[in-house]
């Protein structure tokens, strides 16, 4: 079920334990070959595929399409909001959902820059709403063991605009992928403990702007991204999302 495609009357009749999905994305540069909407399109893809799989068991909210992307502002087209603004926006939406009686809320994140602030939201909203289940999932952390087996570009290969995001976009919106502009990420590494990618998180956080880390805005190697791999990633992630939905429904508060 899609929240804003329902009438007020229809929505009022939906069971209040129905999990409500809020996709948290971004509008930012993704190298020369992927569109600014990459994170939004990927997040919405997973939410829509979940909806196709279990249409009567989830309720999908409108996407938050601009996230915390200040580290990408050196690149043209990037839009960002502050952490405080992001927190207030998500809080207000979630509080509206809770006001209407819903008890299970899933924050579906598709942008790395939203992870830390998303965890703050889970802890804050969870504490303030003890009778509500608040869950945040970041798509590349789902099915991580299975995703590891798909990684052909090795360590550092599945970062921003790299192998996995390129593969997903070839599946979701191939007309927006500029294959003639694909190039490997131009990384500048610092400390071994601060290096990582989507599957291999760093041991410690160390802030640098994106342009300081990679002059072309790409992390990893998008040349390994394929349509078939995009389909496999999608299936794995959606299957794990379904498991989370099923588990949340067993928790009574």
TrEMBL record:
It comes from the Bacteria. Its cofactor is Zn(2+). InterPro entries: Creatininase-like_sf, Creatininase/forma_Hydrolase. Keywords: Hydrolase, Metal-binding, Zinc. Gene3D superfamilies: Creatininase. Belongs to the creatininase superfamily. This is Creatininase family protein. It comes from Snuella lapsa.
């Amino acid at each position: 079920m899609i929240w804003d495609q329902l009438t007020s009357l229809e929505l009022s009749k939906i069971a209040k334990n129905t999990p409500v999905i809020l996709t948290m994305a971004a509008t930012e540069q993704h190298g020369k070959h992927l569109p600014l909407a990459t994170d939004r399109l990927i997040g919405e893809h997973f939410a829509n595929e979940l909806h196709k799989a279990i249409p009567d068991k989830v309720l999908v909210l409108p996407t938050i399409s601009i996230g915390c992307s200040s580290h990408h502002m050196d690149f043209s087209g990037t839009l960002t909001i502050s952490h405080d603004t992001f927190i207030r926006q998500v809080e207000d939406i979630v509080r509206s959902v809770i006001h209407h009686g819903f008890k299970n809320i899933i924050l579906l994140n598709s942008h790395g820059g939203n992870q830390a602030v998303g965890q703050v939201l889970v802890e804050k909203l969870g504490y303030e709403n003890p009778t509500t289940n608040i869950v945040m999932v970041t798509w590349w952390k789902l099915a991580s063991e299975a995703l590891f087996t798909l990684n052909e570009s090795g360590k550092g290969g599945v970062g921003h605009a790299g192998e996995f995001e390129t593969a997903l976009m070839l599946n979701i919106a191939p007309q927006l992928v500029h294959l003639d502009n694909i190039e490997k990420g131009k990384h500048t590494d610092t400390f071994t403990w601060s290096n990582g990618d989507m599957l291999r998180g760093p041991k410690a956080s160390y802030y640098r702007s994106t342009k300081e880390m990679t002059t072309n805005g790409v992390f990893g190697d998008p040349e390994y991204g394929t349509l078939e791999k995009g389909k496999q990633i999608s299936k794995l992630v959606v299957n794990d999302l379904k498991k989370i939905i099923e588990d949340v429904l067993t928790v009574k508060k």
